[in-house]
Automatic annotation (TrEMBL):
Cofactor (UniProt): heme
GO terms assigned for molecular function: heme binding; iron ion binding; monooxygenase activity; oxidoreductase activity, acting on paired donors, with incorporation or reduction of molecular oxygen
One cellular component term from this protein's GO annotations in UniProt: endoplasmic reticulum membrane
Chief localization: endoplasmic reticulum
Cell location: Endoplasmic reticulum membrane
UniProt source species: Chelydra serpentina
Protein name: Cytochrome P450 family 4 subfamily B member 1
Entry-linked Gene3D superfamilies: Cytochrome P450
Keywords for the protein's UniProt record, in alphabetical order: Endoplasmic reticulum, Heme, Iron, Membrane, Metal-binding, Monooxygenase, Oxidoreductase
Pfam families: p450 (PF00067)
Family assignment from sequence similarity: Belongs to the cytochrome P450 family.
Residues binding heme, per UniProt: C413
Length: 466
């Protein structure tokens, strides 16, 4: 006879199993509910924690044009990883950090990043050229995320290729694992209890992954601080036309001449390490998949970039504003596959929606971006890849809160222009080098792990172009 589990342990195992099953089926369930309830529906975790799941542009406008804080319980799960940076902060301190970091993403600074992004993309493409075979596809996801990590380190931390090759393997893996573990914790109500979570195997894995991230961050900050002790080095940095994020954080002073505390510097650095490469890598991977599925759009993008470059091989800042079709394809890919498919808020004052329904202060709200972008009452033929939705002729008919891959309002993504720049650069260089087609035997299986992942990878066939 098989020994039976004690009743409490057996119940916990059943609960965890059902939670994971719900996660695997979540996107299909949400889309079916969105079809039945076109604006919003309630959603409960474990029968104890409920919030309103919204996916209509008017509902999104009512909440996201305000600066309500991120939903406390959910975003508190990030704190052991990224500390209290822009993702978690609210109120005056959030405003201070936002104001401090905004200049780092100004166009004048982004200009100098284009060549660095191109260098990272070319390293990835060279690797692919050596690995491709006629009959075997490549899972591009890990390579794309390594590329965006290289790009992030060069552009915003000036570390370039000084990071050890071993770090390039463990760091992205740790970030990938942490996003999956936080999503699992959100979906598993018992794991909302710190005592249960930190003594569980999942909690221990979470702590170990955090150590990898924090060791890398502490190393970068320590090295930069040592450099800044040299007055001439400090003067050179302050005179540079391009200050990186770490320079800005370490040199920032408040009205009393006090610098940021070390914990704030570490928090913003860790926040950027997550948001600055993992989300962009995810977006680029889905973009390449979309164009592999639609060769007619892929070819039109290729012709556009060839016409822009002519005999040149290097992409320049001014080229990016001359890519209307590529831009439309990027936006359509972000519509179908938003890297961050769900965002949470906790109302700090009541809200009244356009249909007269109301929510009181303290209510939890989830903006389901994936469902909003595929809502049939908002988008015609929402499952169809149609870049012309974002043509100038059609934009006038589009609701300002219908397309929200970077959120909206005062708490929108501070680095969205950085991400769009990198997507354009990497896509253009990839299409000049390869023809993409999908591996129909290995289709992606979409799942939410904070970001929109595929549990089966993203497999593409690559054909070298002459």
């Amino acid at each position: 006879m098989t020994p039976s589990l004690p009743e409490p342990l057996f119940s916990l195992c059943i609960f965890l199993k059902k939670s994971l099953q719900l996660q695997d089926q979540e996107l299909d369930k949400i889309l079916s509910w969105a079809e039945k309830y076109p604006c919003a529906h309630s959603l409960w975790f474990g029968g104890f924690l409920g919030f309103l799941n919204i996916y209509h542009p008017e509902y999104a406008k009512a909440v996201y044009r305000r600066a309500d804080p991120k939903a406390g319980d959910f975003y508190d799960f990030f704190v052991p990883w990224i500390g209290k940076g822009l993702v978690v902060l609210h109120g005056p301190k959030w405003f201070q950090h936002r104001r401090l970091l905004t200049p780092a993403f100004h166009n004048d600074i982004l200009k100098s990043y284009v060549s660095l992004m191109a260098d990272s993309s070319k390293v990835m493409l060279d690797k692919w050229e050596k690995r491709i075979t006629k009959d075997k596809s490549l899972d591009i996801f890990e390579d794309v995320c390594l590329m965006t990590l290289d790009s992030l380190l060069k552009c915003t931390f000036s570390t370039g290729l000084k990071v050890r090759s071993s770090d390039k393997t463990t760091l992205p893996t740790a970030i990938h694992d942490l996003t999956a573990m936080i999503q699992q914790r959100i979906k598993t109500f018992l794991y909302h209890n710190d005592l249960i979570y930190w003594f569980s195997p999942h909690g221990r894995r979470f702590r170990n992954a955090c150590r990898i991230i924090h060791c890398n961050t502490e190393k970068m900050i320590k090295e930069r601080k040592e450099r800044l002790k040299d007055k001439r080095e400090l003067e050179n940095i302050q005179k540079k036309r391009r200050l990186d994020i770490l320079d800005i954080l370490l040199c920032a002073k408040d009205e009393n001449g006090e610098g940021l505390p070390d914990e704030d510097i570490s928090a913003e650095t860790d926040t950027l390490m997550f948001g600055g490469h993992d989300t962009t890598g995810t977006g680029i991977s889905w973009l390449l998949y979309c164009l592999a599925l639609h060769p007619e759009h892929q070819q039109r993008c290729r012709e556009e970039i060839k016409e822009i470059l002519g005999d040149r091989e290097t992409i320049q800042w001014n080229d990016l504003s001359n890519m209307p079709y590529i831009t439309m394809c990027i936006k359509e890919s972000l519509r179908l596959y938003p890297p961050v498919p769900q965002m949470y808020r906790q109302l700090n004052q009541p809200v009244t929606f356009f249909d007269g329904r109301t929510l009181p202060e303290g209510s939890l709200v989830s903006l389901h971006v994936y469902a909003l972008h595929r809502n049939p009452t908002v988008w015609k033929d929402p499952e169809v890849f149609d870049p012309l939705r974002f043509s100038q002729d059609n934009l006038s008919d589009q609701h300002s809160f219908a397309f929200l891959p970077f959120s909206a309002g005062p708490r929108n993504c501070i680095a969205q222009q950085f991400a769009m720049t990198e997507m354009k650069v990497s896509l253009a260089l990839t299409l000049l080098r390869f023809e993409l087609s999908p591996d129909l035997n290995k289709p992606p299986n979409e799942v939410v792990q904070l970001l929109l992942r595929s549990t089966t990878g993203i497999h593409l066939h690559l054909k070298k172009l002459s």
